[in-house]
Structures are given as structure tokens and as C-alpha cells.
Amino acid sequence: MNEMITSAKLTDRKANKVRKRESRKREIAKSAINALKLYGYARTTLRDIAAQSDLSLGSLHYYFEDKDELLIYCVRQYKGDFVKAIAASVDGISAPSDVRAAFCKALAQTIIDEAELHRLWYDIRNQAMFDKTFVPVITEIEEQLIRMMSPLAETRAEQEILYLRFDGSFRYLLQLYLTGTPRSSEEMTALFEVVSL
């Protein structure tokens, strides 16, 4: 009986330690994203991230082996949140035209609210063409983005085509927003609605 209690306590301690470590990694990732948004992948160093996180470089290495591992963690976290937010925007809506309108409006709003984060996504996606380290996470995230099209398209082929159309439009509108010639939320929403047809 005592062995079972001791084993359960050890299991609980281990699980608690894993939860605390994961929580700390998420906190570090939030700070790292701030540095990455400002400087981009190529110009951000682990020292920049450590400074943003109020950690020593050694402490940062305790949680992440290198900048690439940290960046992959950050991109997974924020793109996962993005996909959830877009899904939530159409949750409970049944009419296809209303689903399309809500989906497109949410895409436009996220350009306004999170432009620097989306810039980081395109930065890392381009980096994957030069550095195979990033290919698995890009593939994983693009798969999520393709599945995100399911409220608007039934088949896998339709979802892929729609993703490609949205991605090109999104990147273009993001570029306009970041270079000081933004379209209004209404204009972006209208463009996305045309793309979604």
C-alpha cells in the first residue's frame, strides 16, 4: 500500500514539474515574441530574448536549446491561438453567408490586431526554404491553416485552394498594413469575401 502511495506522489510531483516547466516556457515565449516581432528572425539574438524575458542567457538555455527551438515553440503557440480565434469567430453560426462574413471579418481584424505576429509567420515560413529545421513546424501549421478552411469548404482539395487564395490575399493586405498604406477593416473584409467565393 505504501509503495502505491509513494508511486502516486512521485507521479504527481513529476506531472507538476512538467506543468510548471511548460508554463514557464509559455511565459518565455510571450517575451520572446515581443523581441521577434520587433527585430524579425534573423536580427533577433538569444541575448535580446533573454533581456526581454528578464532571464540570464544560461536560464534561457535551460528551457530552449537554441534560438530555432524557441522560435518554433513561439510560432506554434501563436499560430495555434490564431486558428482557435478564427474558429471561434464562426462558432454557432449556421448560415453559410454569415459564416463567410464572420470568417472574413475575423481575418481582417487579426491583420489590424496582430500584424507583427503575422509578419513573423511569413519570415519563418520563408526561412524554411533555406533551413530544413523549420520545415516540420511549417508543414504542421499549414495543415492547421488548411483545416481552418473547413467552415467554408467541404473537401480537402477545396480547402487547399481556398487556403492558397486566402494566404496570398492575407500576405498582400498585411504588407500594405505594415508599410503604411493599410486598407480599412471593411475593405479587407470585402476583399476576403470575394476571395472566399
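Second entry:
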Amino acid sequence: MLTTPPDGRAGIDASLVKRLLAAQFPRWAHLPVTPVEVDGWDNRTYRLGDAMTVRLPTAAGYVPAVAKENEWLPRLAPSLPVAVPPILGMGVPGEGYPFPWSVRRWLPGATAAAERIGDPARFATTVGEFLLALQGCDPIGGPPAGPHSWYRGASPAHYGDETLRCLSLLDGHVDTARAAAVWDAAVAAEWHGEPVWFHGDIASGNLLVDGGELSAVIDFGTSGVGDPACDLVIAWTMFSGAGREAFRRTVRQDDGTWARARGWALWKALLVLTETLATAPSRAETHRRVIAEVLDDHDRFA
């Protein structure tokens, strides 16, 4: 997973987007192009007029998501209870930009910050219902978990070396003995189920809220077909109390799936804590909290 801003971000701007549109989609070239207020990590996104967006990968590692989303989002959308990004056009490299890109319809709503959510437990239930609907979509022909999904949907063991390195570096900053037990349990709980669709990055920034309710789910770049455990990480990164319990009841996953989910949450929180401990104390504290709650969850349910 890329953990520093890719160099390609600096070369993407509104001027490039205008040139790409003029060359490949001249019917939209007259529309204004403006950066979105909240941008992502893997892609740069621009508003195109009032009703569309242009989305461009920032590095080669994110390129497989373009064709994947363009092919599969239209197939998944009819079976999902809230909106997902409608694809309007797929661009090709040009104007000095080396990657494919896409034009999409704009989805109304704002990212799911706590103050925008009406009832946290109801919201968590709705997110769980979305995941169940996604898992119910036909997986035949879907992309198996692998490099395109950054191994979401596969075993968390893929990140074993990285996790052990972080545990070594964080000795004295977190309870590394308890964390190692959580990691060992995650790796031991091998998944033997039938492959299902997973999103791969269910997080507040990829959930849109309108009127206090979930209105859309965006950014399926890490999606694929495999183990759904990675989609449970939001239980600790966003939900708490009654919301977490409502989410747990709704998704109806077994103990092994929750063990792997704790492993996914632990890996990412350890990694970010390692990177931010000395440079971004407030961000580090957020991930320290996630780690503590994952460890407590393991003690409660394992």
C-alpha cells in the first residue's frame, strides 16, 4: 500500500483535466472544472459542471481500479440499497497524463462525519445492510482478491512481516503482547467460505450522508471477490457503543471473520501509528485508540 503521496499528484490539475476533456470528450469541454472540497488519496477528483466529476489515478498502483470500477459498478448498482458512482465515460492516457481515467455522475451528499449522522445506531445498521447486499451480488467473474485490491479480501497474513515490524517499533507505546495475540488469532482464523463481493475500504470518507442518512457509497477501487472480513474494520475506526453493537448484529458474521477483521484493523492502525508517532500526535492518538479498542474487543469475544 502506498503510504506517502505519489509524485503523480503534482502533475494533475484543472488545466490537465480541461485538455483531456477537449481531446476525448469535447461535448463536455465547455463545462467548468473545479477541485472537489474533500479529495481522496488514490485519485484526484474534479467537479465537471454541476452534475459530473472527473477522476484520475495518482499513481500506477491505482490504475487497475479504473477498468474494474467501470466494468463492475453498473452491474452491482441495481442490487445495492444506496447509490454508487454512475460511470459516464472512460478516458485514455493523453496530454502528458499516463493513466486511464473516468467521468462519473456527481452524487449528492457529504462524507460521513459524526456531526452529519442522525442516529449512529441506525446509520451503522444501514452500513451493515449495504454490506450484506453487496455480499449477495453474483460473484461469478468478479475480480479475485489480489494486488488490485491491495490484498483486501485475502488473508491478512499478506501483511504479516509489516505488522511484526510495527510491533517491534512500537514496543513500549502499545501493549505489544496483547496485539501479537490479536494478530496470531487473525492469521489462524483461515477463511474457508465461498467468495463474496467486498468493498475493501468501508470508511467515513467513502460513505456519503444526506439528511443524516447513508445516501451513497463511493470508491470501489479496492473492491473484489473474496473474504468480507476487511469490510468490518469500520466497527472500530468509526463506530462505538450502540453503533458498533448494531453493526455487529446486522452483518451477522462468525467469530473467525471477526478475528480476521481485528487483524486488518490492527495492521493498518499499527502502520499509521508507526508513521505518525513522532510527527502527528493527534493523528497518532486516533490510531492508538483504535488499537486499544481492537485489543479490548479481542479480550471480550475471542
